[in-house]
């Protein structure tokens, strides 16, 4: 394989990128973005070497504990479960939540063979049983898969005697949490059930 | 910026990739494709260091002359102008063409400020005046931009007394050359006008 063919093959490993997109990306980078190629290579290498998972909340972190888990000033009685770091960032920006998080980095998807095990349910149950947690707020997306995830995790938590709530339905059904306006999310947080 | 933020910013430099796609790509790579991250980094670095342009046809090449331009057995009377290496590969696979190529690596797009100069028209005119070329076949896509490109280049070539033809209209209008079946392309080649 030539260097160009190898680049196209490597780009095809990105999610949602097929042969045609990978070719277009490779030609664009080579023709117009030589500097960006080096930056992307360096960012990939650095990310691969430096980014692991937070021991407590499972989110991507360059340190054993992420900045939020390392912040002792937060409310240890609340644990909020989100799908992605982007969803977590949106909740942080509402300024309405001061508890801790657990970041699934995925959601239940039976058709793809992604079950409770694959999204770290055992790790969540362990974290929720960690002294002090009084309520787990399930803030997964209000999509079919997000709802299924909340359902599975809620059942597992309640079976262990842990209180599990869901964001109120103020969040528009069918939407990705990340795109919901902050006021709606703040309202949904206070109305959790 | 954290390593994760830097990775997301770098991925946003890929064409067609916005904030949301870049996040999704970064999470996916970190969660499921650690090996692919290293391969992509290496492929980007190698491509940046090794891939330049062929001196004669302008396509991406790791050598001063690409394999086709270096092949003295081809028909030097024919020069075929294509938009991308992918289009060139399709023409090669028809087995119907034995001349040389000029690869624009782009197409005229007035709305984006991409004119004849930006797609290397001067270099093409110089190559076409290179002793021996009797006909330039304009095999740009049959899209609005590809037609505009063929029009601009055809006028410039004819103004210099160089015969310029266009692939026959056997190629379905509005389609990208790369997706057209080989038989249609072979037919369009023989019917060029
Ligand atoms: Zn953490
Ligand atoms: Zn060449």
TrEMBL record, chains A, B:
<feature type="domain" description="Toprim">
    <location>
        <begin position="77"/>
        <end position="172"/>
    </location>
</feature>
<dbReference type="Pfam" id="PF13662">
    <property type="entry name" value="Toprim_4"/>
</dbReference>
<keyword id="KW-0863">Zinc-finger</keyword>
<keyword id="KW-0227">DNA damage</keyword>
<keyword id="KW-0233">DNA recombination</keyword>
<dbReference type="Pfam" id="PF21176">
    <property type="entry name" value="RecR_HhH"/>
</dbReference>
<dbReference type="InterPro" id="IPR023627">
    <property type="entry name" value="Rcmb_RecR"/>
</dbReference>
<keyword id="KW-0234">DNA repair</keyword>
<dbReference type="Pfam" id="PF02132">
    <property type="entry name" value="RecR_ZnF"/>
</dbReference>
<dbReference type="InterPro" id="IPR006171">
    <property type="entry name" value="TOPRIM_dom"/>
</dbReference>
<keyword id="KW-0862">Zinc</keyword>
<keyword id="KW-0479">Metal-binding</keyword>
<dbReference type="Pfam" id="PF21175">
    <property type="entry name" value="RecR_C"/>
</dbReference>
<dbReference type="InterPro" id="IPR034137">
    <property type="entry name" value="TOPRIM_RecR"/>
</dbReference>
<comment type="function">
    <text>May play a role in DNA repair. It seems to be involved in an RecBC-independent recombinational process of DNA repair. It may act with RecF and RecO.</text>
</comment>
<feature type="zinc finger region" description="C4-type">
    <location>
        <begin position="54"/>
        <end position="69"/>
    </location>
</feature>
<dbReference type="InterPro" id="IPR015967">
    <property type="entry name" value="Rcmb_RecR_Znf"/>
</dbReference>
<dbReference type="InterPro" id="IPR000093">
    <property type="entry name" value="DNA_Rcmb_RecR"/>
</dbReference>
<protein>
    <recommendedName>
        <fullName>Recombination protein RecR</fullName>
    </recommendedName>
</protein>
<comment type="similarity">
    <text>Belongs to the RecR family.</text>
</comment>
